[in-house]
Amino acid sequence: MTPGDRPGAGGGAGRRAIAAWCLYDWANSGFPTVVITFVFSAYVTKYVAESATLGIAQWGTAISLSALTVAMLSPLLGAIADNRGRRKPWLFAFTGLCILTTFGLWTIEPEPTSLVPALVLVALSNAAFEFCQVFYNAMLPDVAPRHMLGRISGWAWSCGYYGGLAVLIICLLVFALPEEPVFGLDKQSFEHLRITGPLVALWFALFALPLFLVTPDRPASGVGLWQGAQQGIATLIRTVRQLRRYRNIARYLLARMVYTDGLNTVFVVGGAYAANTFGMEFAEILTFGILLNVTAGLGAFGFAWLDDWIGSKRTIMIAIAGLTLCAGAILMVESKLWFYIAGCVLGVFAGPAQAASRTLMARLAPPELLTEMFGLYAFSGKATAFIGPALVGWVTLWSDSQRVGMATILAFFVTGFVLLLPVREPSDDAR
Length: 431
Fold this sequence. Notes:
Number of domains: 2
Largest sheet: none
Number of helices: 19
Shape: globular
Helix content: over 70%
């Protein structure tokens, strides 16, 4: 490791280390895109479960339980990691778990007896993926120079969108869509869909490797695992008891929890809304998903400069305002063309809303509690993730209108915007 690759207090870790860190976003995004959102979720719910309705309910339950596990354990694991110093061993362990369980999805055959193994593997891999984000995100302030936090976070997030898109396109063009899949895969046993698990796993392993080889880590504190666990629990308890000391961070996490619920709900129910309201077929929804990833990646990349120029908080507020206007437009339009247009513009604001949120957490968190704070950040993103989709469903049933149900998403954006107003963002030289 060269001197320029060593982590410093605000000085960054060197170009190779930064590039390797950003590449991890490219590496891991195939998992949520292919496994959770588009390909494997559709395979399990349609061909493995006894019925699509039952499959969707059981799939949603498995994802919710894994998210709840992440929400409960992330702050504790983050506190333990802070006391032990190093983050890469934790990141390596959860990356390995995600890769192994995702690879194991190849074994899921199209029969109801495979449903429980499928849900267990997906729940484990999803939890491992989310735990990875805690330790990966906590490395940002050590990797990026203080004056480039927004750009590095935005560039990495943009890499993630395009990495996920690249894997999805490979899955579709090479395996899912051809009449004769490559490698002699048997369509009768859905091997052309099951192969997406090993593909995502190998992609993750290959492109995550540079981070572990090149990007530096904080030095070990010399604290053993058991002692670190004890100190981590004590630190977390002390942090919770001293919440008044961190009221600014608490305000931010509350605001982020609300507007992130709105954004996540858009992605969770957006496909169903497109199908039912506009009569869009699966191919059209998939095309829309690809376009959404493209515009979100462009937004994350382009707004990254704005993040460093005017600050993360203002960037998030601009993004939330844009999301609100675009979501409102989607609820008003009547044609597929305008739905495509409004949805793609929404994607431009979705990327920076997520990337700048990570940057703001990095700016607000005390250096000695970085991983713990990113554990709380993960908690704020998962603890109430069920509320948005549930509220959309309840209001839709009550009003007998999916447009009215989807309108509840606007309340999440507006409320999150208002809650974010009193949050104070420190300047780059304030810490």
